[in-house]
Target: Mitochondrial inner membrane protease ATP23
Amino acid sequence: MTVKNEKNEKQSDSEKRNNIEEIEYSDLYPGRKNQSGENQSRTWFDVITFNEKRKNYEKINCEINVYNCVKKSPLVKLMLAALKSSGCEVDLGRHISCEVCDNTVTGGYDPDTNQIIICQNTARSRNRVQSTLSHEMIHMFDYCRNKLDLNNIDHLACTEIRAANQCHCSFLGAWYRGTASPFHIKKAHQDCVMDKAVRSLIAIKNIPKEEAMDAVRRVFTKCYNDLEPIGRRLRRNSMDMEKAYYEGPYYGYSE
Model:
């Protein structure tokens, strides 16, 4: 999921249909609001409930999980290699930030700072951090290599489709969300990707479901079939991540 832009520009009616509305950073990522130098003051509630210590612990745990994924996850290592080969090498301290987020999200990509946000209060396990990192790295890859314009709703829909397609939608995951059946598995996967992309657009742009669905449908076929840089749709409990990693150098993605 990408983070909303806070630029304040006048737009025509036609532009409003395709551009992100004039709003501040989303409340989904409250930490983004305090990067202007304003520090949150400590409250008695933080002191009494050890809330500050808990947040510090969550941040350290998150950073450890990020580090372990960078060193050990074939999927994350492949994405890092693809970004590096595309001229957008990732600096761990500069481009990945563990922060407190709304409980409904696990991460995001902020194009204004070119940072991936890992939500320390919701992405608590290494597997969840790996899933979130790889998803947001697809957005970073698209922004770097494909000159993604996140103010264009079709571009935004496309990168959400690609991220869901390659990093999120498995049959078991779709079954859990209620978007799959034991029949027509290929269609079930497409439905899962479309559902995830539509949900992301609604959250990012605060638009009606019908408008989000229209944008996703316009670009779905092209973006669903674009599997760069992973090269395959990952199946759960398979060797797909390892295969994609070892195939990376054949496509110019070397660490």
